[in-house]
Amino acid sequence: MPKRKPVLDYPPCLYLRMRIATKRLLALYETHLARAQLSMPQFGLLIAAAEEPDLSMAQLAEKRSISPSTLTRTLKPLEAEGLVETYTDPASRRIRRVRLTRDGRARIRAGFAAWKQAQTEAAKIVPPKLVAQVLHATEQLV
User: Fold this and answer.
1) Taking CA atoms, which of 1, 26, 42, 98 is between 20 and 30 Å from 127?
2) pTM higher than 0.90 for the full model?
3) How far is the C-alpha of 103 from the C-alpha of 105, rounded, in Å?
4) What whole-number distance in Å separates Cα of residue 83 and Cα of residue 34?
5) In this structure, what are the phi and psi dihedrals at residue 36, rounded to the nearest 5 degrees?
6) Angle at 32 between CA 43 and CA 72, to 5 degrees
7) Helix, coil or strand: residue 6
8) 94-142 per-position pLDDT tens digit
9) CB neighbours of residue 85 within 10 Å
10) Does residue 77 sit in helix, strand or coil?
């Protein structure tokens, strides 16, 4: 049976193709981070909490470019496992802050080893120079 010609003859959508590439890349990282019992968003939050201790929930959400509700949903399992703790700011009872625990630091070490393996594997497939070119080109879109 002959192939049907598409109704519209447009070039492939760059946005959709980049989204597919991002999903594939995320799957690679998630596979490696699963060994440390972390997802990529969880690992990112642990790293952010380690880089800047005692951030407010609002600051952490902004730093990771996520909504407050997504932050809460991602932090809950980390808090339940004792990797982070949230507490009320002593100077302002309206502000909640996030702090990394000792177990959280240990999990970062395990996560970092897994992340490093994913990073090495990804760099073999998509060279860092190519990534830099794409990032530089997309800076003009903002």
Assistant:
1) 42
2) no
3) 5
4) 16
5) -95, 10
6) 25
7) coil
8) 999 999 999 999 999 999 999 999 999 999 999 999 999 999 998 988 7
9) 15
10) helix
